[in-house]
Amino acid sequence: MTAVEKAISVLKDHGFKYTDKREQILSIFVNEDRYLTAKDIHLLLKEKFPTISYDTIYRNLYTFVELDVLEETELNGEKMFRFGCLHQGHHHHFICTSCGMTKNIEMCPMDFFEEQLTGCEIDSHRFEIFGKCENCVKN
């Protein structure tokens, strides 16, 4: 079963119907394998679905996030999305601010912070590093 088929199955399991637009959005994320904005998705879908609205795109993106199909982050006030990371185990990401490419970071800085937060109960955390990847630095 492909990643798109698995995601469609998750949607159906939660009462959402299959649509061509949903499948295309998911396929874009699988093929691009990087963080994308709603505007990026709109540009990539425009040819096949010329009347697709930003509302439709956003509604689907947030549904996918809610169902853990997509991950989201924010850069400069703009939401960015990518297909859920298939990497096993706890990790964080480096995200290229130019092309959206991601790299896994295998260590977690929370070990350091937990020592400084004695007596506190940490429910969750996010740690992302933003910058330019090797390819974007070269160009």
Question: What secondary-structure arrangement, pairings included, does this model have?
Answer:
Elements: H1 3-13, H2 20-32, H3 38-45, H4 54-66, E1 70-75, E2 78-83, E3 92-96, E4 102-105, H5 110-116, E5 128-131, H6 134-138
Parallel strand pairs: 3-5
Antiparallel strand pairs: 1-2, 3-4
Helix pairs in contact: 1-2, 3-4
Provide a brief overview of the structure:
Helices cover 41% and strands 18% of the residues. It has helices spanning 3-13, 20-32, 38-45, 54-66, 110-116, 134-138; strands spanning 70-75, 78-83, 92-96, 102-105, 128-131. It is globular and about 50 Å long.
Structural notes for this entry:
The longest helix is centred in the N-terminal third of the chain and has 13 residues, at 20-32. Helix 1 (3-13) packs across helix 2 (20-32) and helix 3 (38-45) crosses helix 4 (54-66). Strands 4-3-5 form a three-stranded mixed sheet, with no helix packed on it. A two-stranded antiparallel sheet has the order 1-2. The chain is 41% helix and 18% strand. It is an alpha+beta fold.
The structural class is alpha+beta
What helical percentage do the residues reach? 40-55%
User: Per the principal axes of the C-alpha atoms, what is the gross shape?
Assistant: globular
Compressed to H and E, one letter per element, the order equals HHHHEEEEHEH
Query: Sheet bearing the most strands, described?
Result: 3 strands, mixed
Strand content: 15-25%
Please report the number of helical segments. Answer: 6
How far from one another are the termini?
A: 37 Å
* Uncertain stretches: none
Q: What is the alpha-carbon Rg in Å? A: 17 Å
The order of strands across the largest sheet is: 4-3-5
Give the tally of β-strands.
Answer: 5
Overall pLDDT: 89
